[in-house]
Amino acid sequence: MKPSTTLGLGDEAIAWGAMDAGISGAFSYPGTPATEILEAVQSEAPHLWSSWSANEKVAYEEALGMSYAGCRALVAMKHVGLNVAADPFINSAITGVNAGLVLAVADDPGMNSSQNEQDSRFYADFAKVPCFEPSDAQEAYDMTRAAFDLSERFRLPVMVRITTRTAHGRSKVKREKIRIPNHWTHGHPDPMDWTLVPTNARRRYEHLLSIQEPIRNALEDGRWNPMRLAGPRGILCSGAGWNDVRECLGAEPRDSILRIGAYPLPLKKLNQFFNHCREVLIVEDGYPLIESKLRGLKGPPGVVVRGKTDGGLPPLGALTPELVDAFLTGRELPPPAIGRLVVPRPPQLCKGCPHSDSFGALRDAVAEYPDALLFGDIGCYTLGAMPPFKAVHTCVDMGASIGMAHGAVRAGAHPVICTIGDSTFAHSGMPALLGAVRSDARMTVAILDNATTAMTGAQDSFATGETLLEIVRGLGVKDLCVIEPLRKNHSANVEAVKSAIEHPGLSVIVARRECIHYRRAGCELPLRQEGE
Amino acid sequence: MDRNIVLAGVGGQGILTMARAILRVALENGLHVKQAEVHGMSQRGGAVFSHLRISDREIFSELIPAGNANLILAVEPLEALRYAGMLCTGGIIVTNSRPIVNIEDYPAIEGLLDELTQLPDVVAFDMDRLARVAGSTLASNLVALGAASSAIGFKWADMVDAVGGLFPTKGERVRETNLRALRFGRKAAEIYANAIRIGKTPVEARAEIDGLSEADLELAEGAVPT
After folding, report:
1. Which residue in B60, B67, B81 is closest to A342 by CB distance?
2. I want to staple A377 with a disulfide (CB 3.0 to 4.6 A). Which of A29, A39, A99, A401 is the partner?
3. Contact A532 B84 (CB under 8 A)
């Protein structure tokens, strides 16, 4: 494919950077705002392996296996997905990689669609691997390509970290010539490097520590951390914050500028910067990671540092051009001029959604049990927490519902009911259900099977329909009942839930009806224009 | 040329389709563009918005700073009001007046439209009806795009091309419907603006649009809008 310029989301640009760098496969689990990364690979390069994985840990391990076997791989996920993949990620820094392996993580400052706004740069630092942080789609493309080269130079996984505004921001991307997927010839990886029994692990960790300085030097002198020494006030920024800085101060500000686009931090440049400037304002799109490192306990001597930990910028939420403007210029923030009639309009279950009928039945079944505990999970069905259902009391992380329910049973609670979707169940519900089966915990597990991973845009779900029932029986569940969540079945469904509550051991109810947006091959439901 | 457009609506109303058409024209005219959009949870009937920035100079932030939007282009009136604070002096709001009442505390529509139309430079009328007349209730977003087309300022022929090319796999009937919706929106916006100019109230101007027939809404034979 010859070099070309096109409009792309930051997510798409990462996918393109990886494809043009010569990957053989891409791995991921759906999660906003990262979902579009794998979808871009699926759409443009169907000849590459790009099927969804059961969860982020498996996705990472699959990518690692591809790298081990000599072919380049991209793995992508949202920030909390990295919590799930943390075990293989951190240990892959100890084993090292064979062919290039790039981990793309999309963080969600402001929690548009997430339970928290954790900053994945922490993970790269923790694992001691390099990390790139682009400010727009073009940089996302360029940095992803460069990440594969860096990965192969130091034989380490490399992270590319973006946030929602870059992931879902669209701008021009100029693509370079594609590189053919590798015939990587570093031979068979040494089992002594890849088998992390303590003697090997210690030696490998020592190696990891020994290459930290060379990595820092390689990035120090590269193009990713540009510095311009000018006025005595310095602005240190990373990621999309650079866009807001320029929006406020123009293309060539009078201030000294140091942009951080690659980690570990460029120590020589930082020293120069702090020697030159009398005041440094730090603009980071996420946690104050750079700021905290630079401040340490006492702060750099002789320089005033301002950022998120001293009230210059708010310590939470996403960056906006208004916030950065107020921070850099001292101008007052414009008051949020909202019309007095404006009320929030949060997301809600679609008309005709099977979850409405499931939660309606659940709500009515537990009406006579004021002590009922209703553990929930992550998906469209989390919206069951809202009126008129209020049938979800908790939502903590993927697959938490079943384990938490079991724990509550052991505290003596009754009745205990949990709701989980089919895709979430495949993701991380199965081990928890195995535990509940083993001790025949007195609880009811309602698996809401709508045949898809709906909230993120109807991606494949692995454990649905008859397959789901076989899995549940295979895990050892004896008390299993299938209901169809429909208005006309309401009374019967209420009875089914009550019956499950009365059962003295573990009960599983599968509430099965396809999502109204479910896309069958070759059949696109004409309910709405465009996947929005 | 600098356009900072806030697109607003409810998940599923097709605001990203409007963005696609505008972006296509901008790109073909060699302009710089940046867009920010919201995916994920907002697919489910929640408030959605997109920031669209078009310029002949380099664009920095993909987010429009508050007080810098020239145009709020909305398919739903509560959503139009939600972002009214983004407008610059002289900025315009073009919005559908038909509400999507999917929350319990949705304000009374007449009061909402009053609050909206008290702001300077608001064009608000029933775009769902015009979409129906054009051939599909799904095309309200294209009526809105037509209504905003002169504020956006691209050549009409380019807008027609872009909208015509939106859904190549859906056939000729859909294409014709979409182009009709675009034309009706443009014509209706002109009629609405004229009505306000000669002193009619927003309620009267809306009623005038509601009374237009298909023949009234079509552009005169051979007429190219200025």
Report:
1. B81
2. A401
3. no
Specify which residues A228 forms β-bridges with: A257
- A251–B59 CB contact, under 8 Å: no
Cα–Cα distance, A434 to A316 (Å, whole number): 38
Q: How far apart are CA A206 and CA A83, in angstroms?
A: 25
Distance CA B16, CA A221 (A): 41
Q: Do residues A303 and A274 make contact, with C-beta atoms less than 8 angstroms apart?
A: yes
Cα–Cα distance, B119 to B115 (Å, whole number)? 7
Q: Is A222 on the interface with B (CB under 8 A)?
A: no
Q: Please give the Cα distance from A14 to A76 (Å, whole number).
A: 9
CB–CB contact A338 B79 (8 Å): no
Q: Which amino acid is at A355?
A: H
CB spacing of A530 vs B16 below 8 angstroms: yes
DSSP element (H, E) containing B87: strand B87-96
Listed by number, the residues of chain A in 298-327 with a beta carbon closer than 8 Å to a beta carbon of chain B are 320-322, 325
In 3D space, the residue among A481, A488, A491 whose CA is nearest the CA of residue A511 turns out to be A481
Between chains, do A169 and B36 touch, taking CB under 8 Å as contact? yes
Predicted structure pTM score? 0.94
Instruction: Determine contact, residues A468/A447, Cβ cutoff 8 Å.
Output: yes
Q: How many CA atoms lie within 13 A of B175 on its CB side?
A: 12
| Phi-psi label, residue A418: left if phi above 0, alpha if psi -120 to 50, beta otherwise | beta
Measure the N-to-C terminal CA separation of chain A; round to a whole number of Å.
Answer: 29
At position A88, the amino acid (one-letter code) is P
CA of A417 to nearest chain B CA: how many angstroms apart?
25
Q: Are A248 and A328 in contact (CB under 8 A)?
A: yes
Provide DSSP, A267-308. HHHHHHHHHH-SEEEEE-SSS-HHHHHHHTTT--TT-EEEST
Question: Using the 8-state DSSP alphabet, how is residue B153 labeled?
Answer: T
Q: Do B11 and A532 touch (CB under 8 A)?
A: yes
Nearest to A76 by CA among A12, A156, A152, A165: A12
- CA-based angle A380:A381:A386, to the nearest 5? 105
Q: Residue A321: its chain B contacts at CB < 8 A?
A: 61, 63-66
Do the bridges between strand A131-132 and strand A262-263 make them parallel or antiparallel, or are there none, so unpaired?
antiparallel
Instruction: Decide if B16 and A342 are in contact by the 8 Å CB cutoff.
Output: no
With a cut of 0.90, is the ipTM above it?
yes
Q: Which residues contact A385 (CB under 8 A, 6 or more apart)?
A: A376, A391, A392, A393, A395
Nearby residues of B194 by Cβ (< 8 Å), 6 or more positions away: none
pLDDT tens for each residue of chain B, 226 residues long: 899 999 999 988 999 999 999 999 999 999 999 999 876 556 678 889 999 999 999 999 999 999 999 999 999 999 999 999 999 999 999 999 999 999 989 999 999 999 999 998 999 999 999 999 999 999 999 999 999 999 999 999 999 999 999 999 999 999 999 999 999 999 999 999 999 999 999 999 999 999 999 999 987 655 666 5
Q: Are B141 and B14 in contact (CB under 8 A)?
A: yes
Which residues is A78 bridged to in the sheet? Answer: A106
**Contact criterion met (CB below 8 Å) for B78 and B29:** no
Q: Are A211 and A217 in contact (CB under 8 A)?
A: no
- The Cβ of residue A485 has, within 10 Å, a number of other Cβ atoms equal to 24
Task: Indicate the SS3 state at residue B3.
Answer: strand
B138 interaction partners in chain A (CB closer than 8 Å): 528-529
Q: Does A332 touch chain B (CB under 8 A)?
A: no
Sheet holding A227-228, edge to edge: A227-228, A256-260, A233-238, A279-283, A304-306
CB contact under 8 A, A345 and B10: yes
